[in-house]
Amino acid sequence: MSKSNNHMRSALKSVRGLGAAKEGVQHWWIQRVTAVAMVPLLLILLVCMLKLATGDHAAVAAAFKHPLFAVLALLSILAVFWHMKLGLQVVIEDYVHTESVKIVSLLAITFATFVVGGIAALSVLKMFFGA
Amino acid sequence: MANVERPLSPHLQIYRWPVTMATSILHRATGCGLAAGTLLLTWWLVAAAAGPEYYAMVQACLGSILGRLVLLGFSWALFYHLLNGIRHLFWDVGHGYSIPVANKSGWAVIIGSVVLTVLAWILAYSWK
User: Fold this and answer.
1) pLDDT of A2
2) Phi, psi of B26 (to 5 degrees)
3) Quick one: pLDDT band at residue A53, thresholds 50, 70, 90?
4) Rounded Cα gap, residues B94 and B124, in angstroms
5) Which residues of A fall within a CB distance of 8 Å from B82?
């Protein structure tokens, strides 16, 4: 770093001398990206789901056979579970202040997200590819 | 280090609740509720993938009085979080920060979420 940049740094940063992790904005940004993605995705799916949930199993199975519907469902699952993981993480970080409990909770949230999200995605794939 | 006794600001109960405070905590509460709701949604997807018999059982559970009440709460939480999330996106790009506008958008979100929930259920019952 050139010396001319030094006046831009906060005193705290100079003292700690560690620099930024460069990842601070990523969490915030992905929460917004998934939020923006979900606005159209969920509006479309909500209407479809409402229609499907009031019909029989054959209608549901047929819907998930359609590539467009299957892709919409998979994209929604990705956005929903990613957004959920980020949101629950913030809630835990805000309210749980005992380090050990916090870390275990964050791990549990991460694992649960992948397990439940994986099951949801697999169910969609099974209906799309299955007999 | 984490559990040091620090001076605290007055407790929440001290303040008169403006609508913005209610919409803020409701966003978090509905977010947590929706997280629980993903279990329900995943259960429904698993049932649909499992076949007609298991699907019929799950549909019967969700269609019971208790199931309908849970789904009513789920749908309202979804519409609330969706609308208030859009309100947050406007804030993110720098719009709607003045107190009168924030109060109005707060009420719009609350009323809008109820209206959308009612509309969705009217649609669902008319299709049944």
Assistant:
1) 45
2) -65, -30
3) confident
4) 37
5) 38-39, 42
Grouping H, G, I as helix, E, B as strand and the rest as coil, residue A106 is helix
Q: How far is CA B58 from CA A36, A51, A73, in A?
A: 31, 17, 20
Chain A positions touching chain B (beta carbons under 8 Å)? 32, 35-36, 38-39, 42, 46, 50-51, 53-58, 60-61, 64, 80-81, 84, 87-88, 91, 97-99, 116-117, 119-120, 122-124, 126-127, 130
Q: Closest by alpha carbon to B88, among B109, B107, B115, B73? A: B109
Q: Chain-centre distance of CA B75, in angstroms?
A: 7
Neighbours of A89 (CB within 10 A): 17
Q: Where are the domains of chain A?
A: 26-129
Considering only alpha carbons, which residue of chain B is nearest residue A49?
B124
B-chain residue closest to A78, CA distance: B38
Average pLDDT over residues B14-41: 94
Mean pLDDT of chain A, nearest integer: 89
Q: Does domain A26-129 have CATH number 1.20.1300.10?
A: yes
Q: Which CATH code for domain B22-127?
A: 1.20.1300.10
Note the ipTM here.
Answer: 0.88
Round the CA-based radius of gyration of chain A to a whole number and report it. Answer: 21
Residues of B in contact with A91 (CB under 8 A): 28, 31-32
Query: Can you give the pLDDT at residue B127?
Result: 82
A21-38 average pLDDT score: 89
